[in-house]
Amino acid sequence: MSSSLENGANTPDVDDDGRIKRTGTLLTASAHIITAVIGSGVLSLAWAEAQMGWIPGAIVLLMFSLITWYVSRLQADCYRNHITGKRHYTYKEAVRSILGGRKYKYCALAQYTNFVGVSIGYTITASISMAAVKRAICFHKNGHEVGCHVKNNLFIIIFGIIEIFLSQVPNFHKLSWLSVIAAVMSFGYSFIGISLSIAKVTRVGIARTTLTGVVVGLDVTLSKKIWNILTALGNMAFAYAFSMVLIEIQDTLKSKPTESVVMKKAITIGSNITTFFYMLCGMMGYAAFGNDAPGNFLTGFGFFEPYWLVAIANIFIVIHLVGAYQVFVQPLFEFVETSCGERWPTKKFIREKYGIKIPVCGVYELNLMNIIWRTGYVIIISTIAMILPFFNDIVGLMGALSFWPLTIYFPIEMYIAQGKVITRSYKWYFFKFLSFSCFIVSVLSATASLYGIISNITTFKPFQSIS
Q: Is residue 251 part of a domain?
């Protein structure tokens, strides 16, 4: 009887794993997917379109959408272990259960590397948006002929100080309202960006655009165009980097109908809506700015009136990234702190906690190791952002590093390992070809992003970033 209760048998309020009965539906899963996908990745799509042009840009974006949709559907079949029927609650747990400990370590390495890259990228993006707010106000007060240039370092420091404080909040990543705020902010600045693009096109017409993007000899050199196209691939891949949360979303669904069936429908709905939204952002942003599209298309509206709308859009970005930063770094914090605790279980510096009474908030348990490690991490990330404030190259590198291993390789390998594919069958060869092709794309994009970073370093003075 005890065993039956633990497994949820004959208990209407719990599922087969003993947890509280899940109530997620097709509608809620679709909403979660849309929320997870639409984010700061939309900011670089206009620039990416400008590198490729109307036709290639649209085709490539659709290809990323199609591949991500297809592989995500394969991943939906990996929510339960095909032998035991056991649920997998997280992406990493699914990899460990199906592929084993060795590949689990590779998966964890890929995830934590991505977390560090995202930290740097979000710091750069937030500082640029803060500077854009100040510039928009300056243009309004002093006229559009004034440059209103500002240094980004101050805003990187401000963002870093905020993150140092928030990093000390216990269980910050478990606050449910964080996802709601992030969703509202991301939709808010995306819609404002689209609206401003439409308004600009309506007012002054479509900017200088071409079918194949920036013109060799006029806008860029041939080699620069090739490098930019490869970097743009990484930017587009970053926009679709949501595979890591699909298992978690699927774990919210009811058992009937089968979770995989509902999840596949939700993936189709979510992918269609987000692709339409991305096409709108990329195409309208390209129409508004043409081949001169800025890396972050919302920062290009500094001259636009009403200035307060531009400022609000960039404030939305900052608010979104303040919370999103913590969503990504908290698992990394927890991993390092847990590992240190297991390795040095007797060290007071690691284990000892001191209760400090804080008015209104109650008692805060202070741990020296956590404070020093988390504060040091944010400071290092902020310093790197000051040294390497290259928005599109950093975003491209993040997208390239995460796309193949996390979005393509592990889901395909899990699907094959579940026994869904006969070894050396036509389907098996197709999966291997798809995985290898995406691997090549990721390598080329990562190489181009690194090349862009190195090239910029040779001409850029560290700590002198200006908007």
A: yes
